[in-house]
Predict the 3D structure of the following.
Amino acid sequence: MKGKFSEFGQWIVLAVIAFLYVKYGLPALFEKGERSYLEVAFIGFSSLFLFSFIWILFQKKADGDESEQKEQTTTGS
């Protein structure tokens, strides 16, 4: 139960970050004119965090799938 909740929590965090990125980060990228340092920092850090979080989440899922396959092959033989 704990493993499923932590994965569910990770997806919630990812959804919140993605929402903030789409709501505030992307419009700031396409606005004309000067940007404040805060906007540039938000866009940069949210982009970095969003993509690294997605990478880590899918890497964990891939590692979990590989370990399940190894368990099935060792118990099945």
About this structure: The chain has one domain: 2-76. The chain has a mean pLDDT of 74.
